[in-house]
Amino acid sequence: MKPESARHAAEYLRANDRDRYYATLVLPAPARDAVTALYAFNADLASVRDRAREPAAGEIRLQWWIDALEGEGHGAVRQNPLAGALLDAIAEYALPTPAIVRMIEARRFDLYDDPMPDMPTFEGYAGETASALYQLAAMILNGGRPVEPGDAAGHLGVAHALVGHLRAFGYNASKGRIILPLDVFTTCGVTAADIRAGKASENLSVALTRYADLATQHLDKADAAIAALPKALRPALALRVVLRAQLKTLDLDAPFAPARDIADRRKLLLLTFAR
User: Fold this and answer.
1) Distances (CA, A) of 91 to 5, 13, 74, 84, 99
2) DSSP 258
3) CA 101 to chain centre
4) Residue 238 three-state SS
5) Cβ atoms of 2 and 78 closer than 8 Å
6) Residue 145, C-beta contacts closer than 8 angstroms, at least 6 positions apart
7) CATH classification code of 113-275
8) pTM score > 0.90 for this model?
9) 204 Rama class: left (phi>0) / alpha (psi -120 to 50) / beta
10) Domain boundaries, the chain
11) What is the spatial distance between Cα 46 and Cα 61, in angstroms, rounded to a whole number?
12) Span 227-262, pLDDT tens digits
């Protein structure tokens, strides 16, 4: 990977997804640049909604990435240092392009205001995005050889999505977006209109507590599955310790307030000693 592309990817990731940036710092040096490129690419996808003035513009950006991956030659595409870094990582570690294209396709949901309908749909979304990132990172740590982190990546990806969207609940609601599954809110007597209006209630706190409990269950299952993996692969999944700490900081009785976070120094310590 060209040094300038690797440097750009690291800077982009640090600016746009600090937690995953910190997670790369505990990776073995030979794999760090490739995982950083993958995570920076994901950060770009995650920000498309906020950068696009309308869904059509977001669709164009997502299609640009698909064309960049599926096109031939990649000459002009490599003028974008982030794309160049990703293409180098794919080539060096034989990463499966179809999985990365599915990651892009899943992000089309982000462009629109339709609520996430139910938990199975949410788990599918998390699987194509967060879980896929963990799977690909583990493959990079395995030297590009096929690896099956299976339940570890699957459960951790769902937990990551749940924690992330619990933390971003107030922000998303202010934008009219409901990404946590609507069916749980409905069961608890909370409507989409309530959420978009920023209406706090005991019923809403109950619903969010259910999501937090689900996140804990998935983290517990991920921990058990990770313990069975070769030690060399576990650093790709170290972010679980930060997610668990962030989950404990949530104030589910004040869901529309900005989420508190743990200190960056503590994140680094947790990641450094994750096993």
Assistant:
1) 14, 20, 12, 11, 14
2) P
3) 15
4) coil
5) no
6) 139
7) 1.10.600.10
8) yes
9) alpha
10) 1-112, 113-275
11) 11
12) 999 999 999 999 999 999 999 999 999 999 999 999
Q: Pick from 157, 152, 138: which is nearest to 235 by CA? A: 138
- Residue in the structure block whose two tokens are 């909370």: 190
| Positions of the chain with pLDDT lower than 70, given as ranges | 72-75, 149
Q: How far is CA 29 from CA 140, 235, 275, in A?
A: 11, 12, 18
Q: How far apart are the C-alpha atoms of 48 and 113, rounded to whole Å?
A: 14
Q: Cβ-count burial of 251 within 10 angstroms (0-12 exposed, 13-18 middle, 19+ buried)?
A: exposed
Query: pLDDT tens for residues 52-84?
Result: 889 999 999 999 999 999 876 555 777 889 999
Query: Is the distance from CB of 57 to CB of 48 less than 8 angstroms?
Result: no
* DSSP-derived secondary structure letter, 109: G
Give the 3-state DSSP-derived string for 35-83, with helices as H, strands as E and coil as C.
Answer: HHHHHHHHHHHHCHHHHCCCHHHHHHHHHHHHHHHHCCCCCCHHHCHHH
* Measured distance CA(2)–CA(10) in Å, rounded: 13
Nearest C-alpha neighbor of 44 from the set 8, 76, 1, 73: 8
